[in-house]
Amino acid sequence: MPEVSGRVGVVFVSHSSKIAAGLVELAAQMAPSAALVAAGGTDDDRIGTSFDRVMSAIDEADSGAGVVVLCDLGSAILTAETALDFLDDELRSRVRIVDAPLVEGGVAAAVAAESGEDLESVVRAALSSASGGAPGVVNGAGEPQATLPGPADAGPGTSAGPVRTVTLVNDDGLHARPAAVLVKLASSFDQKVTVNGTDARSLLAIMSLGLTKGASLRIASDDPAAGDAVAAIADLVESGFGEV
């Protein structure tokens, strides 16, 4: 994938070169302009991990805004941590190894990077995909950081700001691609908007709603200044995200 100046890069470290490449292909469907780099397999394309490939992937993904690294298994994390030790101080300071599900976390991180979020926000997006355990992040100094909180849940009650209710018309429902488009649009506004009580800027939260064709979506905000944001998201949903 081409490097994009000023955006956070995402590196997928897997024991399989095919898995890493496939994850880049998947995430690119929702984040076509983000710097997504595969670091899978050994140097001779066997199952395993490669220090050199991880080092090269981090360097390729970095455009100055930082790099988020996700790994599939414990030894991949060890390889990534070793690579951190050999980076120059400046680059190492803006690399985060995130202990989150490789697929869900990688996609969420890619969408956040595509939206122009900063490094810690991309880390937070990846961590929001974790469904159990104690996910964490290792900073550039090799020290564990506290888990970053995911987006706050919002109840479906009344809203002091604009509200609009629309019907989902997509035959396949709100699957990954339209959900990513919705999240990207929501992230372009300063005001927080919710969809059925869920933060519209969280890809995993939106997808977890499991919305199918004919579902009713309540687009709302507590911010009176969010009229344009609510209207834009509602219009997007009613348009079928270009799929209808």
Topology:
Elements: E1 9-14, H1 17-30, E2 35-40, H2 51-61, E3 67-71, H3 74-86, H4 89-92, E4 95-98, H5 102-114, H6 119-127, E5 137-138, E6 144-145, E7 163-167, H7 176-187, E8 194-195, E9 198-199, H8 203-207, E10 216-220, H9 227-239
Parallel strand pairs: 1-2, 1-3, 3-4
Antiparallel strand pairs: 4-5, 5-6, 7-10, 8-9, 8-10
Helix pairs in contact: 1-5, 2-3, 5-6
Features:
alpha/beta; Rossmann fold; 2 domains; 6-stranded mixed β-sheet; 10 strands; elongated; EC 2.7.1.121; kinase activity; HPr-like; transferase; kinase
Structure notes:
This protein has 244 residues and is α/β, with parallel strands linked by helices. It folds into two domains: 9-145, Rossmann fold (3-Layer(aba) Sandwich), CATH 3.40.50.510; 163-242, 2-Layer Sandwich (Histidine-containing Protein, Chain: A). 39% of the residues lie in helices and 16% in strands. It is built from nine helices and ten strands. It has helices spanning 17-30, 51-61, 74-86, 89-92, 102-114, 119-127, 176-187, 203-207, 227-239, and strands at 9-14, 35-40, 67-71, 95-98, 137-138, 144-145, 163-167, 194-195, 198-199, 216-220. It has a six-stranded mixed β-sheet with strand order 2-1-3-4-5-6, with helices on both faces. It has a four-stranded antiparallel β-sheet with strand order 7-10-8-9, covered by helices on one side. A hairpin with a 2-residue loop joins strand 8 (194-195) and strand 9 (198-199). Helix 5 (102-114) packs antiparallel against helix 6. The two termini are 29 Å apart. The relative contact order is 0.13.
